[in-house]
Design a protein that fits this description.
mainly alpha, 12 helices, 81% helix
Length: 335
């Protein structure tokens, strides 16, 4: 019964601590930063490196660093709330993350490098198989090693996902050797950790089912009442805003409507962009252009806020899980 009560308490605290304007604002800034940096790296990479696969790897690594820095700031606010310390503002959260930026970069980098090395070994073995005559004779004998390498890659990716959940908090409470602390924590609390992880996924699903219903109801009622005028306003959204909205929309679908091939790469859709599905209006009066601009601006802010929620929930859940299972790590007021 005690475990159930603790689980319900943690479940409810995920809601209360995630729906926080400061944390959502920090996450929105992180997403926007990641998008801008992604496009800059793609532009410079296409002109300098001309190796798209290398540019993509660099882009994903930098994106992970930006997200970890963002989660470090969010974790700092959440730690203060859990420890009942004085509240931390956005500037203070970023200052704390800046002080810990070394660990926030190197901790995930260690795991990412392991994944890349394992993938490189897999590629090398497959390149051996490309050798004429000799390759097809030797390559089949690597069936078991290749399978084991693939298993290690999957395990490393799972550890990276768990690291994204727990490492920001581990770092922000001042733990030395955060990756070692992560491994020790998972070994000692694996079963309870899995239970809390499932609870986190349930929370995300509930929130997005609700928000998806809200968006669908809003669109249906407006379309039914306004008819053609509603469509004209939508088509009057400036191209830049419309493109931004279309980049966010595919990522929302992966959270709110489940898996489909076109929404598999939700985050990638934001970073790389998606084509507009609404043809721009032409020859309409200025009031429609004004309405389209305002509607598009607020819609983009709403979508960014919704999109930030799973990331905020992920970070807040990691903080609650770590401090809940390791209460001695909670900082005291004098710290």
């Amino acid at each position: 019964m005690g475990e159930m009560e603790a689980g319900v308490k943690t479940f409810s605290r995920i809601f209360s601590l995630s729906l926080n304007a400061k944390k959502i604002a920090i996450q929105i800034l992180g997403i926007l930063c990641a998008v801008i940096v992604w496009h800059l790296i793609q532009w410079f990479g296409s002109h300098l490196l001309r190796l798209q696969w290398l540019v993509d790897i660099i882009d994903w690594i930098v994106t992970i660093f930006i997200l970890f820095f963002t989660w470090g700031a969010i974790a700092r606010i959440t730690v203060a709330e859990v420890a009942e310390l004085p509240p931390i503002d956005i500037a203070g959260a970023f200052r704390s993350a800046k002080k810990a930026v070394g660990s926030l970069v190197t901790a995930p980098l260690k795991i990412v490098l392991i994944i890349l090395i394992l993938m490189l070994l897999h590629v090398i073995v497959n390149l051996i198989g490309m050798i004429p005559y000799l390759g097809e004779i030797i390559w089949p004998f690597f069936a078991i090693p290749l399978f084991l390498l693939s298993a290690l890659i999957v395990v490393a990716k799972i550890i990276l996902a768990c690291g994204a959940l727990l490492l920001p908090t581990i770092i922000m409470v001042g733990k030395q050797s955060p990756v070692s602390e992560l491994n020790d924590f998972l070994r000692e609390n694996i079963l309870r950790f899995i239970g809390y992880l499932i609870a986190t996924i349930v929370v995300v699903a509930i929130i997005f089912l609700f928000l998806d219903s809200v968006a669908a109801t809003n669109d249906s009622l407006s379309s039914s009442v306004m008819g053609q005028k509603y469509t004209t306003i939508l088509s009057s959204v400036p191209n830049a805003l419309n493109a931004a909205i279309q980049r966010v929309s595919p990522a929302l679908k992966i959270f709110s409507r489940g898996y489909s091939p076109e929404t598999l790469y939700g985050l990638k859709a934001i970073l790389q962009g998606a084509p507009s599905s609404v043809a721009p209006a032409s020859g309409v009066r200025w009031t429609f252009s004004f309405a389209g601009f305002i509607w598009g601006l607020f819609t983009l802010l709403i979508y960014l806020g919704i999109l930030s929620l799973p990331f905020v929930i992920w970070c807040v859940s990691g903080t609650l899980i770590y401090l809940g299972l390791k209460p001695e790590a909670i900082p005291k007021p004098q710290e």
